[in-house]
Each structure stands twice: as C-alpha cells, then as structure tokens.
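Run log // design_07
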C-alpha cells in the first residue's frame, strides 16, 4: 500500500550529475573540509571562527555576524563541546539563543522537545537544515530531534531569525532557519572512546575514529562515530535506548574540486507518555510530579502498551568545485524515517480504569473492560538535490540555484484492543490509511551589488512550488471516507537586503523579504473540508540590525515586524485529530540583542534578551471556527508564544579549565486550552545550568589527550507546569512539567 517514488532513479542521477558538472568549484587547501562560505546561503554564512581564546568572539555562547544581512546567532563548535550535555539534541543546544525556547520533558536529549519555538513560531513554522539540506516531517514540517543528529557530531549551529535572502531554501522560510553543521574530520589520526553517566540512570558510551589527513589517499580525511545511549528518563517508566552511527569523508580530488560524503543511521526504542500531550492534573496528583507510564496492564497508560520503534537515516554526496569564475556546491541527498508506534487512547488522562463506554466512550468489541489503543505507522523517505552557483558580474556577484525534493509518505492509525496483544478493534476500525507525496521545487536568483566598498545591496527572487498529493483509502478526520486529490501552492518570493560596513568591526543591515509555508497535512483533516479554501501562510518580513565585534566585546541588536495572512494555529487534539484553525492575519514584532564581554583573566560575561509581541487581527473569525462541535481557542492567544526570553551567565576559560553558569528565562505565554476552549496561561520560568570541564593535551605515552566534564542541569531545581498540549478524553488539559535537577559526568580519552 505504500506509495513508491515515481521518479526514475536513473533520470534523477543524470539530472544531478549534469548539474554538478556544469562548472567546477573552489578547491580546499586541505587538510580538512573545503570552506563553503562562498556558496552557502545566508542560513550558513558566518564570520571566520575566532582562534584567540581570550577574545569575546571565541567565548561567546551566541553572537551576531558582521556579514549577515538579517538577525543571526552563531553557536560555535567549542561552545557545544563545553556546554551541551552528551545526550543533548539540537533543541537543547539552541535554547541558549535569543528568542528561542525549548525543554525536553524527559531530561536533556531524552525525548523530543514539546515546545520548541523561535520568535514564538512553533517547530514546523521555521526551517531546520543539516549542512545546508532542509529536512522535515512530511505531515507538518516538524523535526524529530531524537532520531537524527547527536551533539558529539556537530560543528556548530547558525540561527537565522527571518526568511534570509533568496538563496535560503526550505519549506517554512518566514520563521527563520536553524542551520546545523556537522563537524569536520580531524587533521590528526586518533581513536577516542568516551562515556557519560548521570541522573535517571542515564548511560552513554561511544567511540570515534579519525583517520587524519591520509597523504597516500590524496589528502582524504574521515571520521566515524558510534554512540549508544540508554536512560530511564525523568518521567516514570519513560525509558529510551538509542544507537547512532555517523560518518564523514572529505576528499580533495584536484586543486579545484572537493568531494564530501556523509552518512548517518539512528535506531531508537522508547517508552513514552507524550503521544497525547502530557498528563492531567488528576493523574499527576495520583502518580507524582514525574508521572509518566505505570505498571498496570488494565490501564491505557501501561508501559507495555506505550512504546515506539523508530529507524532513521540521512546521507548526502557533495561536490564543491570551481572553473574560471564560476563556483558550485551541489548536494544529492536522501533521508528517511520509519516509525512503528504503540499507545493507549487516553495516556495520562483522568480515567484509566478500563475502556468501559460509560467511562470514556472507547468500548471495544472484545469486552467492556478491555484496554483500547491506537497503534500507528509512519514511514517516509525524501530524495533531493541542492544546487548553488555563483560568479562575479559587473560590480558584484550573481547567485543562481535550485532545490528539488520529493518525499513519499505512508501513514496508518487504527483502533486496537491492547489487552489482546493489539488486535484490531472492529468497533474503532482504521482512523487513517494515507499515502501522500510532497514535491518541492525552489529555483532562485539574486544579485549582490557592491555599490561602494562599504555598501552592498542584494535584490533577489525565489519561486516556491509545492505539491501535496493524496491517495487515502481512509482520510483522517473524514469519518472513514477516502480522499484522492492533489493541491499545488506556488508563489514568487522577492527579497531585498542592504548591508553596510560602518567600520571593519561594525556593520549594519536592513531587509525586506516575503515568506511562505504550504498548508500542512492537518489542514486537510477536517470533516467536510473544502480543500479549495485551504490557503498557504504568507508573510512580509521587515528587519534591521547591527553588529559590533572586537577582542573584548561582541554585541548585536535588531528589530523586526512580520505581517502574516492565513495564519494556521494548532489548538490541540479534538475528536482524535490534532486540529488547526485559520487565525487570519497575525502581526508579529519585537527586538533582540546579545552581548559577550571579555572581562579578562579568563572570565567573560554573557547576556541576551528578546521581546516578542503579536496581534491577532480578526479574533472573532478565529474563535468561531468549529470542528466536530468543539470551538477553537477564543481568539485572544496563540500557542507557546512567550512575551520574552532572556539569558545571562558567566564563563571562565583559562588553560585546561572551562566553567560556565548560564540562566535562561522563558516569559509568560498561553499554551493549550481548558475543556471550554479557553486558553491556559503560564508564568515565566528560569532554568540555570552549570558546566565545568578539565582538558589534558598531554597524558604520557599511552594517550594523546583526555578530558573530564561535570554538568548540573536545572541547578536550582525549578519545578512547575510549563506547557499544555491537548486534552484527555474527558476534556481535561494535559500538562508538561519542568524536569528536576539532574547531573552528568563525562570522560573521553584520545589514543
């Protein structure tokens, strides 16, 4: 029943190879990877990394860029190595940045973040890229943070807060881009075992092998890294077992061409209570602050009924080459996600005694006291290519490129009797059997016009064309009816950037750009929906800002306004479907800043702040939307948009010693809704983390280097409810809580 990839692989390979051989690119010197700065989009552009440990730029947890044309925060590899938990996902790392908010409810890296936001935009409303490749879930463009990359393999993250210029590709450009970069192979051969262990019975063991620069193989270099993570998790009986394999090869093939190959495979088994969005207050009062799953086979929250088996992979082959004045960066890639999930119907809900229809309306054909469940299958694979070229022209440079992606997706959900080993419940039947495909094509062109030595103006145009096709024997939300159809959404997206170098260490910029997001799958999953009325979200983004850098200080600030129409707002699970409402026109505005000051003697001070505001222009229309008789939120609030975020901390780095104390505040916000459809409001909270490590670069004849690190997350043991996502079968809100204080000890030895 799964849809096949309807493009012939031979034709795709010919297309990609032809594009790769049009021109040849800039060669690397090197011993490591080629510098892709000349061909990256704005989502990857950053200043050259600072090597002086006593500088503010080197120590900065986040910093702006002197060359970016929109608000940008750079998180360096050295910051990740010193501060990220060994178990961390990228969602944990980016939380330090201005206007970003994220918590993993099961502990750092031990569950997908349930509240990742950027400027108040939820996951799925901004891009995430890996080495310049956009990747996302097929149904709502979100990202499975526990199923792909691990902190040990990251070479930095650049957060663009805005659409970027025309070369910034992706499904959801208006919200910004989190551009994750893989680290480069080491120039020296080494064999490095490492381990971490800590709270919640968390254990991680890994080993990395670096070849160094292999002179006998044309200066090729590579590394391969394997990690195994196990943990019981902060939430009761929410255990996780994860295996991750990552490899990268960089091979100069001439003075003008470099090839790169990357491959990643991840296997995950987890018991999770987050499928329905947390737990009710009554459930928490009965089972404790860390209420999760329970050891009771008569309950829908039984740990034996709630688990996921997930396999994922991501691979790409890249050619970077130059011929004459032309440069090219061409990547052909694929990634996949295969998910078999098993869950009770009302996990964490108020009533857990049985499936008796008198209790919760979920009776089965097999017995009034049998336990109902909703197993799911979600399998998808994407194939695609990114082609970026540039050449000098006149008094500037022209950039041309195209992104192509085709994703096939198969989704199934059905009612089952968990008491009878998950047998199909004929009373419940299938909630969905959906085959769908997504095809995206985004060509772009822009001209970087150097008006003077200091001023550059860049007009650009990107054309986004997105087609979603359904072959669904049972369309979710359609009452068991089929749906076969296809919808295409397309728009030309202009952008205009101005960048001015006031001084060699001080720049300013202004930007106008249009953003675009095609409708997500959930927009089609409403009873009797007229698909012709489903519209993409469109935005007009206006931004300006400035960045200053010297040895002692790095500081940046910006202000923005975003005008949107056809804003899609998720409002929780209703009648078994996560429903969305069209909030019409919503305007966002705010200001952001970040600063690092090197005090001296190894000490640096850091801070950032972001103010976020929004205005729903037609709340009455939003409030009146109906699905299955249930009203949406009352139109006064959007989900998970904090009024502000703020961070402050101190860093000490001298000789072999590193230490940091960082506090991050997330402001007041609305999240979820009560049984009457009214928004729930949550106060601000602050989480403080402490990290310290000691490195030895010489450890005698038996090793090359070693390091030991110790971390305390949530050092003040802050507790409380921080978000709601969905409601139980009785309409009661389901909540997430802040994980309690946790510890992690890490050790690595290079041989």
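design_07 sequence
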């Amino acid at each position: 029943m799964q849809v096949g990839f309807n493009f012939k692989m031979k034709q795709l390979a010919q297309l990609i190879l032809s594009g790769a051989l049009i021109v040849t690119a800039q060669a690397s010197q090197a011993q490591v990877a080629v510098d892709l700065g000349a061909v990256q989009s704005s989502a990857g552009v950053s200043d050259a990394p600072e090597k002086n440990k006593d500088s503010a730029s080197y120590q900065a947890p986040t910093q702006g860029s002197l060359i970016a044309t929109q608000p940008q925060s750079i998180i360096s590899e050295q910051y990740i190595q010193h501060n990220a938990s060994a178990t961390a996902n990228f969602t944990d790392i980016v939380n330090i940045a201005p206007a970003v908010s994220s918590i993993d409810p099961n502990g750092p890296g031990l569950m997908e973040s349930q509240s990742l936001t950027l400027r108040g935009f939820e996951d799925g409303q901004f891009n995430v890229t890996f080495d310049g490749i956009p990747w996302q879930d097929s149904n709502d463009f979100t990202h499975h943070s526990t199923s792909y990359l691990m902190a040990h393999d990251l070479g930095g993250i650049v957060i663009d807060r805005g659409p970027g210029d025309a070369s910034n590709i992706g499904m959801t450009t208006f919200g910004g881009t989190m551009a994750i970069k893989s680290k480069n192979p080491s120039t020296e051969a080494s064999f490095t075992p490492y381990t971490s262990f800590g709270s919640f019975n968390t254990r991680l063991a890994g080993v990395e092998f670096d070849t160094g620069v292999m002179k006998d193989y044309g200066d090729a270099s590579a590394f391969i890294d394997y990690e195994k993570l196990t943990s019981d998790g902060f939430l009761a009986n929410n255990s996780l077992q994860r295996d991750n394999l990552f490899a990268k090869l960089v091979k100069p093939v001439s003075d003008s061409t470099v090839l790169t190959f990357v491959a990643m495979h991840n296997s995950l088994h987890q018991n999770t209570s987050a499928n329905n969005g947390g737990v009710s207050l009554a459930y928490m009062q009965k089972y404790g602050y860390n209420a999760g799953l329970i050891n009771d086979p008569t309950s829908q929250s039984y740990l034996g009924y709630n688990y996921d088996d997930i396999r994922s992979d991501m691979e790409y082959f890249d050619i970077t080459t130059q011929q004459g004045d032309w440069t090219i960066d061409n990547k052909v890639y694929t990634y996949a996600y295969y998910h078999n999930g098993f869950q009770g119907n009302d996990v964490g809900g108020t009533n857990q005694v049985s499936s008796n229809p008198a209790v919760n309306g979920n009776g089965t054909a097999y017995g009034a006291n049998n336990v109902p469940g909703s197993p799911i299958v979600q399998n998808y694979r994407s194939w695609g290519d990114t082609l970026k070229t540039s050449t000098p022209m006149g008094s500037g440079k022209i950039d041309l490129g195209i992104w192509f992606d085709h994703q096939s997706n198969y989704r199934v959900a059905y009612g089952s009797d968990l008491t009878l080993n998950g047998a199909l419940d004929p009373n419940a039947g299938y909630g969905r059997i959906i085959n769908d495909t997504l095809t995206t094509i985004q060509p772009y062109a822009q001209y970087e016009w150097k008006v003077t030595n200091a001023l550059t103006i860049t007009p650009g145009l990107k054309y986004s064309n997105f087609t979603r096709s359904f072959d669904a024997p049972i369309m979710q939300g359609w009452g068991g009816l089929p749906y076969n159809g296809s919808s295409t959404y397309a728009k030309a997206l202009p952008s205009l950037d101005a960048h001015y170098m006031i001084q060699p260490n001080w720049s300013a910029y202004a930007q106008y750009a249009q953003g675009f997001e095609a409708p997500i799958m959930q927009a089609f999953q409403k009873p009797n929906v007229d698909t012709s009325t489903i519209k993409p979200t469109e935005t007009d983004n206006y931004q300006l800002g400035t960045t200053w850098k010297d040895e002692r200080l790095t500081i940046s600030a910006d202000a923005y306004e975003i005008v949107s129409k056809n804003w899609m707002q998720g409002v929780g699970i209703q009648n078994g479907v996560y429903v969305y409402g069209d909030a019409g026109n919503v305007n966002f505005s705010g200001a952001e800043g970040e600063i690092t000051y090197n005090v001296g003697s190894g000490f640096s001070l850091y801070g950032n702040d972001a103010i976020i505001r929004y205005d729903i222009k037609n709340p009455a229309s939003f409030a009146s939307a109906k699905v299955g008789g249930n009203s949406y939120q009352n139109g006064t609030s959007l989900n998970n948009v904090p009024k502000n975020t703020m961070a402050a901390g101190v860093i000490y780095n001298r000789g072999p010693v590193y230490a940091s104390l960082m506090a991050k505040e997330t402001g007041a916000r609305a999240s979820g809704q009560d049984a009457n459809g009214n928004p729930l409001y949550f106060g601000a909270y602050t989480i403080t983390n402490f990290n310290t490590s000691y490195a030895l670069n010489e450890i005698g004849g038996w090793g090359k280097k070693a390091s030991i690190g110790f971390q305390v997350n949530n050092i003040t043991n802050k507790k409380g409810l921080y978000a709601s996502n969905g409601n139980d079968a009785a309409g009661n809100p389901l909540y997430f809580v802040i994980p309690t204080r946790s510890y992690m000890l890490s050790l690595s030895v290079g041989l």
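Residues 9-750 form a domain with the Maltoporin; Chain A fold (CATH 2.40.170.20).
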